[in-house]
Structure formats: structure tokens, C-alpha cells
Structures
1.
Amino acid sequence: MASALLIDKYDRVARDLRVSLTDRCNLRCTYCMPAEGLEWIPTPLTLSDEETIRLIRIAVTELGIRQVRFTGGEPLLRKSLEKIIAATKQLQTDEGLSPHTAITTNALGLERRAKGLKAAGLDRVNISLDTLNADHYFQLTRRNRHADVLRGIDAALENGLTPVKVNSVVMPGINDPDIVDLALFAVRRGLNLRFIEQMPLGPREQWARAEMVTAAEILTSLESRFEISAASEPRGSAPAELWNVVDRLNPKIAGQIGIIASVSHPFCGACDRTRLTTDGAIRTCLFSRSETSLRDIMRAGATDAELADIWRTTMWAKKAGHDIDDPNFIQPQRTMSAIGG
Ligand code: SAM
Ligand code: SF4
């Protein structure tokens, strides 16, 4: 445990930092947030730009972090996103490189920001789009913004924020019939689409293990239209299992699609993530029920070395897995929007 890196007792090393830049959002996806009534974290309790940049610097220069992913809530709502990305890109990892940066975004307003984000040094985007059907999009997000997302995808491609990954949560009875259309769209446009099993991280009444659309069911839907074979690339710490797909009706339409089976086939053994919430807490896992706040210690004058030590100690205690299938599983207090997905 004396190592400088973020190692846990199962020998996993965290190289990927997820930074939540806000818990606020301009959508209300059913699997993530309640329609109303979720209180925002008061601004004085959230990290300032300088505090955020300081903790990212400690993670990269003292703790071995190599990739920084900005998320939320909706990270595009953070006005200083470009400034924080530019400061991150100035850092040097233990390999002597600038950290790889990405944002996970619902893409509302990306059309206007893509150029500036690229100029700030952003490498790549993950865009969340669950369906090509505008009515289903409204049912899922409770907002009528489907066209904005499509324009955001165009802007990401035009500005070289590539490879553009698309995250798609499959919800029973809403967008499960849309899997093939979204896959065709993604393969035609050269997008790296990843279907995601819904996790129990939103409003409690929204998730039921028995109703969840599983990775196996997603694969069966894809097989109705595509020839499918397992991709040969090693998966490493990537959560998505990759499949080669070829359209049976037009074999020129061919590419790869990922499926993230977080619930039915957890990949916790290969996890390389550590998380920082917008109010300055370190979380070792999306599903952690305890977290360690760095905010108050930092505000009380802790040195970089002290903050790095607390981060290491917190990561050492990371649990082996998320235990969703354990009958005693309890969902974390925070919803996904306040954790940072
Ligand atoms: N607002 C941004 C967005 O939607 O991309 C970033 C934050 S969002 C919490 C990050 C990712 O988590 C999104 O791709 C979203 O689809 C996914 N997500 C949210 N709730 C989820 C759930 N209950 N299960 C699986 N994925 C979820
Ligand atoms: Fe907002 Fe992203 Fe959650 Fe949807 S998934 S409500 S866009 S934070």
C-alpha cells in the first residue's frame, strides 16, 4: 500500500478519472433522474474551478491517472468546461504525455461548443442517444430536444472529437424496438455505438432486475438484422464487449457495436476507475455507499501530499464488485446524475 499509484487490495490500478462537473441537467432521463423534486447541491458546497483543477493535477501528477473524463449531470452546463480541459491538457502523466480527455454529454448545445472544446484540447466525446425515434426520445428524456442531439453528433464529427462514442441505455417497452435502427445509423456514420444495460442508479421505482433488457436480448435484436461475430481485439479495462456486425440487406454496411453488460456480466475485476463528484467526494465505484470528501480537508489547508494520501487510502478499500445480484444489495443514495456516469 506504499505505492504512489491508486491501487486497491485486489491489485487493480486506477488510470481513469471521472470528474463530475455539475449535478445539474437540462434533461430528465427516466433511468437517471426523477421528473422533479431532486434538489441541486448548493453551489458553495461544489468545487470551484481552481479546486477542481487542483485535484485533477494531484490525480495526474501524483497518482498515475492517464485519462480524465468529464461528466455530470450535464458537463456542457459548466461554463468553465473549456478552461478546465485546457488546464488538464497542460499536465503530464507518468508516461510523459498529456492526459487523454473526453466528455460524456447529452450533446445539447454541443453544436455551438464543439469547436472551442477541440481548441481547448478535448480529445473525444461520448454522446448519449438512446433512440432515433423523436417520440421515444421524449418519453425517455422528458424533453423535446432530439434534433439538438443529432446536430451535436454532426458537430463532434466535423470538429474531429473522434472517435465519437454513442451511449444508449435500453429501456423495456420504450426504445428496445429501436435497437436495429440506431445500430444502422451508427455504423453508417462511423460512430462507436455501445448499448448499455440499465443499472439501478436512478429513481428506485424505475429499475427491476426481471424487466431489465439484458445484453443477451440486445444481441438477439441485433441478430435479427446483422451477421454478428465476436470482435478479436482484447477488451482490457473497456466495459463494452465488441461485436463485428454486417448488415444482411447491404453487406457494405459493416462495423462494430459494443454492449455493456454492467448488470448481467459485471466487469468489476478489470475496473480502472476512480471518481470525483462535483462536491469534492472520491468514489471508488458507481455503486459505493460510502465516499470520502476531499473538499473540506482541502479548504482547511491540506497539502497536495496529504490529499494524495487520502485518495490512495480510499482506493485501497475499493470493493471487489458492485453486488447488484446480492439479495442485500442497496442502491446508493445519490442518483446517477449526482454521481457522474
Ligand atoms: N448528461 C451526460 C450524458 O447523459 O451523457 C453525462 C452524465 S450521464 C449520468 C452519463 C451516462 O450515464 C449517460 O450515457 C447515461 O445514459 C448513463 N446512465 C444514466 N443513468 C443510467 C442508468 N440507470 N443505467 C445505465 N446508464 C445510465
Ligand atoms: Fe441528464 Fe445525462 Fe442523466 Fe440524462 S443521463 S438526465 S442527460 S445526466
2.
Amino acid sequence: MDLGLNGKVALVEAASKGLGKASALALAREGARVAICARTAADLEAAAEEIRHETNAEVLAVPADLASAEGIRNVVAATVECYGAVDVLVNNSGGPPPGKFADVTDEDWRQAFELLTLNFVRSVREVLPHMRRKRWGRIIGIQSSSVKQPVAQIDLSNGIRPGIAGLMKAIMPDLARDRITINLVLPGMFLTSRIHPDLAAGGAHIDKAVEEQLAPLAATIPMGRLGDPMELGHVVAFLASEQASYITGAVYQVDGGSIKSNI
Ligand code: NAP
């Protein structure tokens, strides 16, 4: 199936590793021109080079801190300056640190709000004029299964992410008038450096020792394993496609069956 992404401009945030990088790679494989950002310039350039090498796609790497308004403004401006548009936004972040309610301070809550909620608000606000101008756009937010069901040990995520789903739903009708769709994907547990430091390189092939350490976690998932980041990247690419033109205001869990609720 041709996803109609050839030549489209996709900005993928927090994409030097993990789910962001997999999403950027999936979009680049479909012919999109890609801009990626993260804070660590060396990792970011390495990811850009890897994506260029595999796909021959144009990849712009813009170092930026997504917890700041200036960082987000800069990365959107650099994308528009380079490619003249932003057709697809994949909103993403590094995620908040673990911690139970009793251990989390007011400052932790403020920082997590900046990194998750304000990152979503600012990123959508910055790209919208460019999408409205073309009367076409795709916004996909990488959130977490915590939108539907609390996750163990990360109460910052449990407290903040469901509100982003509410906001997404609230702004959706106004965006739809300009043929801009907005959806969220909810990862369960994936093989990224967020889960284990040795997984920074990405991909489904992990060494035996790491596999053994993750076995108890894998046993809690109906599919019996953690996800390969590309399994989320492919869903992101589909939601960015022409074919997904009638899907908006939706949340897609990509979790190997972990979420226990009916809907
Ligand atoms: P990851 O492999 O650790 O990658 C995180 C990426 O975000 C890196 O490129 C990192 O680069 C970048 N980043 C972190 N903080 C940033 C900031 N302030 N500004 C710009 N870039 C930043 O993480 P992941 O597993 O892909 O997770 C991505 C998102 O999915 C997170 O929000 C996470 O909570 C969520 N999620 C992941 C899982 C999972 O199982 N992996 C499950 C549920 C939800 P720099 O550090 O260089 O900036």
C-alpha cells in the first residue's frame, strides 16, 4: 500500500533513540522528508545518518530541548526554513522519571508538566499555521498506556497524560475543519533505552543477558514479549498517511495486549 507520504515533511520530536527514532525511520521509508530533534547533538546526528543511510531520505537534525518554548519554536522554524512546510508532527518527549506519589515533589510535577503537557501544547501551536495554510496535516502524539490505565511506579505519567488525551479530543473538531487529523498512540512496553540502558541502539535483537533481565516484565504481557520500536513506528506512519484521512480524535494502544479495559 502506498501511504501517500512521498515528499511530505515530517517533524519527529525526541527522535535520536527509541520510539521517536523508529517513527522517523518508518516515515522516511515511505519517502517523507524528515526533521528530528533531541538534546544530545552527537546521538541525534548518528540517528540522522542511520536513517539517511537506510532510506536515502533527506533528514534534518536540530538539537533542541522540548521542555522549553524556545527549543520547540526553533525546531519548527528550522524545519520550515529547510523544507518550507510541516505536514506531519510526531509529538514525543523523553517521558517523566519514575516515582510513586509520595516521592514526587512540586518541582517534579512542574517539570513533567513542561515536558509532557506544554510540549504538546507548544508543538501543536507552532505547527498549526503551516498545516492550516495547506489545509492538510497529521498530528500524532506518542503518549503511554497510562492514558487508559495507570502504569506501575510512574505517577507523573499517570497524573498528566490522561489530560493530554482530553485536550487532544477538545481541539480535534477545530483542526478537522482544515483537514488536520490529531491522534494519540499509547505504547505499552517497548525495547528502548527507557526500559533498559543497553537498548539504546534500538531494534528487536537483544542479547541474552538483557532478555533474561526483562523476562519477568515480558511475562506480564499477553504477547509474551516487549515491543520492537518499529511496531509502533509503523502505526505512526499509517496514522500519518493519506489512507488515515478519516481517523481523528482517536487513541491507539500498541501494547501487546497489556491494557485490561474493554475499550
Ligand atoms: P528513549 O528510548 O529513552 O528515547 C528518548 C528520546 O527523547 C531520546 O532521543 C532523547 O534524547 C529524547 N529526549 C529526552 N528528553 C528530551 C528533551 N527534554 N528534549 C528533547 N528530546 C528529549 O525513550 P522511548 O522509550 O522512546 O520513549 C519515548 C516516549 O514514549 C516517552 O515519553 C516515554 O515515556 C513514552 N513511553 C515509552 C514506553 C516504552 O516502553 N519505551 C512505554 C510507554 C510510554 P536526549 O536525551 O538526547 O534529549
